[in-house]
Amino acid sequence: PTPRLAGVAAPAGQAAAQSGDLLTITGTRLIKRPADSVRVRFSNARLDAPIWLDADSAGETEVTVTLPAAAPGALPVGGYLVSIEATSTDPVSGQVEVSESDSLSVTVGPHLLSLTVTPDPPVAGNAITIRATFVPELQEGQRARLLAAGGEATPEPFTAPTGALDFTLASVRSGPMPVRLRIDGIESRLV
C-alpha cells in the first residue's frame, strides 16, 4: 500500500502558511517503519526544481515540517504541491525502501516582519510612505500590493528580488491602521 495524504494544515487554521510556520501533513501509511529519513517535497511551476525539506517529525498518520524562516531556502510566495518521501531500511533484508505519497496543495504567503511609516506619526489627510519588510523575497515577475487605510497601494519600482518595498498612500486617517501585504493575490496575516 502506498502512502496517501489527507490534509495539509498551517498553524491556527490560517489560509496560507508563512516562513517559519510548522506545517502538519496528515494521511495514512506515511511511513512503514521508523524511517531513516523523511523529506517533504514542494513543487511549483516557478521553480526550476522541487524544494526538499527534512521533516521535523514523522509517524504513520502525521508528518510535520517547518518552513524556512529566511533566504536561502525560503519558499517563494505561491501555491505548491506537497508530497512526502520516506526512506527506510528493511530490518531483515537490509534492503533500502523509498516510498512517495500522492500530492496535496498548500499556499505559502508573505510574512510581514516590519512596517516603517514616514512621517511618524502620520498626519490625517496627508500622504505617507510605508516601507514593508518581509520574507520570502519578492521574485521577478511577482506582483505586490499593500492593503492599508481602506485602500490599496502599488510599490515603488524594483529591479531585483527584494525583501523590502516602499508604498505611498495618498491620504490617511488618524488612528490605528490594519495592514496586509498581498503578493500574487496571496495575503499576509493582518498586522
Please describe what this structure looks like.
- The chain has 191 residues and is mainly β.
- The chain has strands spanning 4-9, 22-28, 37-43, 51-54, 57-58, 62-66, 78-89, 96-100, 104-108, 111-118, 128-138, 144-148, 151-153, 162-169, 179-183, 186-187.
- The strands form four sheets. Strands 3, 4, 7, 8 and 9 form a five-stranded antiparallel beta sheet that branches. Strands 1-2-6-5 form a four-stranded antiparallel beta sheet, with no helix packed on it. A four-stranded antiparallel beta sheet has the order 13-12-15-16, with no helix packed on it.
What proportion of the residues form beta strands (DSSP E)? over 45%
Shape: elongated
Helix and strand sequence: EEEEEEEEEEEEEEEE
Oligomer: single chain
**Overall number of strands:** 16
* Biggest sheet architecture: 5 strands, antiparallel
Instruction: Please tell me how large the radius of gyration is.
Output: 20 Å
The CA-CA distance between the termini, in Å, is 45 Å
What structural class do the secondary elements suggest? mainly beta
Poorly predicted residue ranges: none
Number of helices: 0
Overall pLDDT: 89
Q: Helix amount, in percent?
A: under 10%
Note the topology.
Layout: E1 4-9, E2 22-28, E3 37-43, E4 51-54, E5 57-58, E6 62-66, E7 78-89, E8 96-100, E9 104-108, E10 111-118, E11 128-138, E12 144-148, E13 151-153, E14 162-169, E15 179-183, E16 186-187
Antiparallel strand pairs: 1-2, 2-6, 3-4, 3-7, 5-6, 7-8, 7-9, 10-11, 11-14, 12-13, 12-15, 15-16
